Amino acid sequence: MKKPPLKERSQRPKLILFNKPFNVLCQFTDKEGRKTLSDFIPVSNVYAAGRLDYDSEGLVVLTNMGSLQHRIAEPRYKLPKTYLAQVDGIPDEEALGKLRRGVLLNDGMTSPADVELLGVDAGIWPRVPPIRFRKSIPATWIRLTIIEGRNRQVRRMTAAVGHPTLRLVRIKIGHWELGELKPGEWKEVPFAEGCLDERQGN
User: Fold this and answer.
1) What is the CA radius of gyration of the chain?
2) Rounded to whole angstroms, how far apart are CA atoms 25 and 21?
3) Are 80 and 145 within 8 A, CB to CB?
4) 6-75+176-196: what CATH class?
5) pTM for this model (two decimals)
6) Which among 38, 48, 72, 84 counts the fewest CB atoms within 10 Å?
């Protein structure tokens, strides 16, 4: 295994799991006055490893170790990321099959995804504000795991098969899970050297 840079080895490694609420920027500052990570996490010198869109929710991993940030964010490491997506309508086997085989987007074909149809309730906290509700079209939850990190990829994938995403919650990155963290809550977890193992995510 490649050793972290000398500068990293001289500081205490930090690893934080955070449940990012809806409409919070995945960074610590914002010139427009929007809510950011600094509104929730009073820890210095840590940065988000990878990003989560402003209108998405769920797990963000933060660390002060640049090598770990790189491993999580860099697509070539194929670290699996699992999401719960609430979509318009009820995807049939044809739509689910397309997601499982890969979907052609404007930036190319996606890798195959692991997809499971969950139904109308995924056991997730209510969103504030709530999603729009339409009596004529039901909203259904799916669990979806991808190994890429394209811009708004899950939303584009579900839209491409006819079921736009209404709400998106990330619940797992590699072996780190959201667990019982409520929106806005965070916790520091032990930093194991194995976090940087080349085999992680393969």
Assistant:
1) 17
2) 9
3) yes
4) alpha beta
5) 0.89
6) 38
How confident is the prediction along the chain (202 residues), in pLDDT tens digits per residue?
Answer: 455 554 545 578 899 999 999 999 999 999 999 999 999 999 999 999 988 999 999 999 999 988 888 888 777 777 899 999 999 999 999 999 999 999 999 999 999 999 999 999 999 999 988 887 777 778 999 999 999 888 899 999 999 999 999 999 999 999 999 999 999 999 999 876 545 544 444 3
Q: Is it true that 6-75+176-196 and 80-173 share their CATH fold? A: yes
- Classified by CATH at the fold level, domain 80-173 comes out as Alpha-Beta Plaits (3.30.70)
Tokens of 165: 């995403």
Of 30, 39, 53, 114, the active-site residue reads 53
- Alpha-carbon torsion 201, 24, 171, 122, what sign? negative
Does 114 qualify as catalytic in the annotation? no
